[in-house]
Please model this.
Amino acid sequence: MDNNIVLEKKLNRVAYVLTFVVLVLVGLMRRYKLDIGVDFSFLPPFHASLNALTAIVLLVALYFIKAKNMELHKRFMLTALSLSVLFLLSYVAYHFTTPETIFGDLNHDGILDSDELLLVDKSRTPYLILLFSHISLAAISLPFILLTFIRAYTNQFDKHKMMARYVFPVWLYVAITGPVCYFLLMPYYS
Model:
């Protein structure tokens, strides 16, 4: 069997396991909070910055592949992947240790009372739709981002290109909507 095929199968298994672990952690972080004595409340703007930087890096990587500069494309895609990994680690650490911020919770008590709901009534639904699309597409795209990377890493460039056509815009959407969600939620951080 070709070494690239063997490597691809191993890496695919790693991608599926990583995806499963990340999805479990994301599911658990909403239910359980850990008190480790560190205040991570400074992280949301860092997360937004990482996402914004990822979007820029993805666009630069797209520019370089369109210019047929595969070496710079590869470097920028590795940078985008690294930024996303850093984001994910930081995001999980934040959400495991910090109470959730609720859109419209002006008094920061963790409860959206009827007066607060009335004040944000028209803007809450669009925010929740944007947030839902961001979170859903982030979860759905994770294994595909990894699999697209694996195709390039194992020199299956035709498969990589075919997958990237669909995966890239979703990843870019997630990277762009992350900071947008942050800016919409920013007034409600305590």
Q: What stands out?
A: The helical segments are 3-29, 43-66, 70-97, 114-119, 121-153, 157-185.
